[in-house]
Amino acid sequence: MRASVILRSRNEAARLRLTLASLRAQSEEAEIVVVNDGSDDATDDVLREATRLAPLVRIDHEKAQGRSRAANAGAARAGGDVLIFLDGDTLAGPDFVARHLAVHRRLDGALARGETLHLRQTRLFRDPDALTPMPGEEARVAAMSAADLARARVGADEVAGDFASIEARAQEGIYPGAGPRRLYQLEMAALREAPGCAVLWAAASGSNQSVPRAAFLDSGGFDDELSINEHRELALRLTQAGLAMAPADGARSFHMIHRRGWRDPLVETDWEARFYARHPLPEVALLAVLWASLADAPAVPAPARILSLPQLAEAARRVGVVGLEAARAAHLCACAEQGAALG
């Protein structure tokens, strides 16, 4: 059994160089497929250099086509039995490939999700190795002490020879903050402790997820019209087709943060109508309630908060209502009534 790692990247040249170095340092080799999705930075130079160091399948899009189309293009060219999806700004731990393959060798028809961590200290730097500051961060970087710069640096030498020093600085969750950390923890807890949970597809990861290539292609791959939550929508289809979500313990990825914010699915909600049209299920409608419940100051009333995937499954079972807003309103109403009865 062989793996192909599908890397989607756009204008992440310095981080992509480090990501590729981490894939060359794997304990078990994998085919590397890079989809350069319309980059206009130094990505071409990075890929030329990488090709001289190790075999590489390269796909170049003249214009950006988005996350889903880029991933699908990579999967179509991949030759591995198992596809592992990773982003161009995300390091793979040394046993990343081996741990994913271990799941697929043990479980037929697995959809494996690894451990997603982040490196917050890279956010100020265009190049985390050379410590080149992001535009607008020059003064802040110039004021950092030598010790602070050393702690912030993620170097190619560390990636290749001292990955433990990088891992020691990582934090749980794909982004900084209590909300992403709580989400990561509840997703991994469900995968490890509630294998029969009906909504495990909601624990899918956009980066650090693996699937049998045949199953991916048979499913049609990612929905081209989705650029947020495309991984969860795919996982829902695949689990409906008989695949089972499973944790890839020890398959650790490290997102090199490069901006203060991120695409928040509670703010950018265009994905929701498409997702729900394909899957008119109360659990899809209640995803927003789950995520809103994890905020530092949740807008969701305490009795209606959903704080685990088993709770999401139970809330969806109780609601049983069709319609995005109708399902959420029914959930809030039922929780309010229950709270009043208990009070």
Summarize the structure.
The chain has 343 residues and is α/β, with parallel strands linked by helices.
Report on the structure:
α2 links the parallel β2 and β3 (57-61). With 343 residues, this protein is an alpha/beta fold. The protein is built from 16 helices and eleven strands. The model has no long low-confidence stretch (mean pLDDT 94). Strands 1, 2, 3, 4, 5, 6, 9, 10 and 11 form a nine-stranded mixed β-sheet that branches.
Topology at a glance:
Blueprint: E1 3-9, H1 13-24, E2 31-37, H2 43-53, E3 57-61, H3 67-77, E4 82-87, E5 90-92, H4 96-106, E6 110-119, E7 125-127, E8 132-133, H5 138-142, H6 146-152, H7 156-161, H8 163-167, E9 171-172, H9 178-193, E10 209-212, H10 213-219, H11 230-240, E11 244-256, H12 270-278, H13 282-285, H14 287-293, H15 309-319, H16 324-342
Parallel strand pairs: 1-2, 1-4, 2-3, 6-11
Antiparallel strand pairs: 4-10, 5-11, 6-9, 6-10, 7-8
Helix pairs in contact: 1-2, 15-16
